[in-house]
Amino acid sequence: MLISAVTIRQIEINRLASARANAYALANDRATEVQNHLDRALSAVYALSALVQQSQGAVRNFDDVAIKMLPNYPGVSIMIMAPGGIISHAIPKAGNEKAIGLDLLQDPVMKAETQLARNTGLLTLAGPLPLRQGGEGLVARLPIFLDQANGGPIFWGFTNIVLRLPQALDSARLPSLTSHGLDYKLWRVDIETGKAQTIIESSPAELSNPVKKSIDVPNGAWTLSVAPHAGWGAPMEMMRNSGIGLALSMLIAYLAKLQMRQIAHKNELEQQVDARTHDIEASKQQLAATLDAIPDPLFEMGLDGTYYACHVPHSHPLAATVQSFLGHKVTDVMPQQSAQVLLDALLEAHTSGVSNGKQLMQDLPQGPQWFELSVARKLVGSGAPARFIVISHDITTRKEYEDKLTHIAHFDALTHLPNRVLLSDRLQQAMAQMHRRGKQLVVVYLDLDGFKAINDQHGHAVGDRVLITLTHRMKLALREGDTLARIGGDEFVVVLIDLENASDCLPLVNRLLEVAAQPMQVGEFRPQVSASLGITFYPQAENIEPDQLLRQADQAMYQAKVAGKNRYHVFDAAQDSTIRGHHESLERIRLSLTQNELVLHYQPQVNMRSGKVIGAEALIRWQHPEKGLLAPSEFLPVIEDHPLAIEVGEWVIGTALTQIEQWHSTGLKLHASVNIGASQLQQSDFVARLQSILAAHPQVNPTSLKLEVLETSALSDMAQVSQVIKDCAQLGVMFALDDFGTGYSSLTYLKRLNVAMLKIDQSFVRDMLDDPDDLAILQGVIGLAAAFKRQVIAEGVETVAHGTALLHLGCELAQGYGIARPMPGANIPAWVAAWQPDAAWSELPWLGSVAQNAED
To answer: Percentage of the chain surpassing pLDDT 70?
Structure first.
């Protein structure tokens, strides 16, 4: 009896162990299918990640690729791209509209596992979660980091897939467990609460002492718990209630049942083998679909550079050649330099797991092509040789664009000469080379004289042709190894190297002056310029930087401008101080204009015979807050040929018109004469600007304004100036030719410029009483005025004798210290009221004059 009971108990224990073993085997099979199904589904995330990586985050065809991929991943219901963590694309679109714009990093439901994925850089699987689209599901997300130009990775965003429950686990066939009398529960531990969270279950009832199978998933594990519907039974109670008479039959029944289960288990294993074979074929199809979605060549390679497998789209430039790579090493099929780049990428991936960003060039039939490599180490069995997956992305278009940007950044767009950036680099290198070789280097700063006038008169197209022609000439004048750069509109820099002595540069400098001054033919025009050159040398007594050399040469060039242009000037410390002072003076004069420190004084102009005051010449002064009242000779030369001179000139005209208004308001009818510089007069819009100034003073008749232009001015376009004088005459504004007789073109100016008056320079008047030559010149000028029917006025009348002599020559109009010194405009009315001509002038008999209509 005891033996029977022991036997019965042992049989029950064996039955229970067998039942648990069978349950575990079934649980293991289902868990394996869940694992395989998840692995296949999650491979879609990596495929989407590869798409983002290859496009450097600029995915333009996500929707098309995702639509093509989705049918090949059973269980995956949605494919998502979320740059920056915000969902921008969700395929299929229908039903997923609510998900667009969702910020995964801030969403209360999603943010914990989303932030975990971003912070760890690993794939995470979250869920079950309520979906914005409705229902529940699992969400897999993979963070993507892109390499930057400086090598550091930067977070781009996520690729995601959604597995809708319970449909996503249909292929795992968990419900088939119930046909074996088993209940099941698939669950995980929530990372936030630490509590068990059910994923899918056959019944909400608690399982009795279930067998458990763990399933590895990203960022954790799932557990499949399995137990019979009715529990495992009670072995001790079975032993007590069983009769000895049933022992043998039960044993036989048990053995028969065990045999049946073994047969059933064998059949089930065969079915599982068939199912796994089907899964493998499906995985192959999914892999093929994934590879077809990748537009770049993909290779499997060994660490030594041997090609083992490849996949290349038919339309790719490498499609015709890559099959011949198989079995060969990269050094057999590529130039040494390109092969070494690929070997270095393989070694980096072997060490760190991945390699991104290395670039190589291949000569293909259609020309040189650039490729960027992405390499990842492949998982292989223990002891197996290392294998790597290499993706080769064509970046030829991007390289061409980068090369174009580099050229734009370093070369002048018009002349294709090095610009200031490239010049600085070359100058730095040249200085280092000269220091090593013990030779000298010369920097020449070249600025064109008269180029602005060409632009203003003929337009920028002609100006551009002048610059291109001059660039070609200067290149021919220089030696190989010298650098010619354009750093501004009409500014160039030349770097001369390998000179034994400083004087060795002079032949080259003179040659530059010659080619700059040569006339050129541009269409129907023959423009001509010259150049002012500034020169400095290296090495110097003290250490000096490249930008200091350029500043020195620039300052020397300006000194050449001041000295008369069309020449060169060599930098030295004393001149450096002078030029620095000049630049400071320019800014100070500009400040004086804005702070109303400039003033006008007026010198009366009279008819010496009649005593009538006919007008006054406006003379600029600077009421300096520290230096007192400064004469124009102390500051006007600083702004000559500078745009500031035009601003000052227009200020003088406007201020003189205001003074005329004030005189007229008191009943004093006088005109005011204003000096106009050549640069202001030759502005293309001079007449229009003058009209604008006159329009601001509607109370002043334009005939009350007289403009004086120096006869010594360099009027480069006589036809234009003549037209300006005619246009101004139509406005009522007349011109006088100032300092007449001191220039080299007196007759030309007198003939071609329709001025109303000639103004005799004071240098002739001052010495006329003692110098017969000056007296003869005066007689000639007065005679010319009469011949050309021009009025004439003399300046520099310092004594009664000067006035008397002029009256004897027929000149009645005059100004000078002998009549009145310049004074503020407010003092003019009182002076006019008090002034009387000298009796010696009034008593002279009238001999005829050229002052007719001067008093009108």
So the answer is: 88
Is the pTM for the entire model greater than 0.70? no
- What is the SS3 string spanning 605-654? EEECCCCCEEEEEEEEEEEECCCEEECHHHCHHHHCCCHHHHHHHHHHHH
Q: What is the pLDDT of residues 201-228, one digit of tens each?
A: 988 888 888 989 888 888 788 898 999 9
Q: What span, in angstroms and rounded, lies between the C-alpha atoms of 146 and 7?
A: 69
CA–CA dist 35, 125 (Å, integer): 13
The pLDDT tens digits for 501-522 are 888 888 899 999 999 999 988 8
C-beta of residue 850 within 8 angstroms of C-beta of residue 785: yes
Assign 285 a pLDDT band (cuts: 50, 70, 90): low
CA separation, residue 236 to residues 6, 16, 58, 240, 522 (Å): 10, 12, 69, 6, 117
- Residue 361 contacts residue 338 (beta carbons within 8 Å): yes
- Whole-angstrom CA distances from 379 to 125, 324, 342, 385 are 21, 26, 20, 10
Amino acid identity, position 368: P
Name the residue among 245, 242, 246, 248 with its Cα closest to residue 9. 242
Could you give the CA distance from residue 357 to residue 519 in angstroms, rounded to a whole number?
54
> The sheet that has 153-164: what strands, in order across it?
89-91, 76-83, 153-164, 136-147, 124-130
Q: Would you say residue 856 has pLDDT above 60? A: no
Dihedral of CA 321/325/330/335: which sign?
negative
Query: Which of these, 812, 797, 823, lies nearest to 853 by C-alpha position?
Result: 812
Please choose, from the candidates 691, 681, 777, the residue with its C-alpha nearest in 3D space to the C-alpha of residue 735. 681
The 8-class DSSP code of residue 790 comes to -
CA distances to 15, 468, 630, 716 from 627, rounded to whole Å, are: 119, 47, 7, 37
Residue with tokens 């007065």: 782
Alpha-carbon torsion (839, 843, 847, 853), positive or negative: positive
Tell me, letter by letter, the H, E, C secondary structure of 54-118.
Answer: HCCCCCCCHHHHHHHHHHHCCCEEEEEEEECCECCEEECCCCCHHHCCCECCCCCCCHHHHHHHH
Torsion of CA 458, 459, 463, 464, to 10 degrees: -140
User: What residues are paired with 307 via a beta bridge?
Assistant: 301
State the DSSP H helix or E strand holding residue 469, giving kind and residue range, or none if neither. Answer: helix 460-477
DSSP 536: E
756, 791 Cβ separation under 8 angstroms: yes
3-class SS at 288? Answer: helix
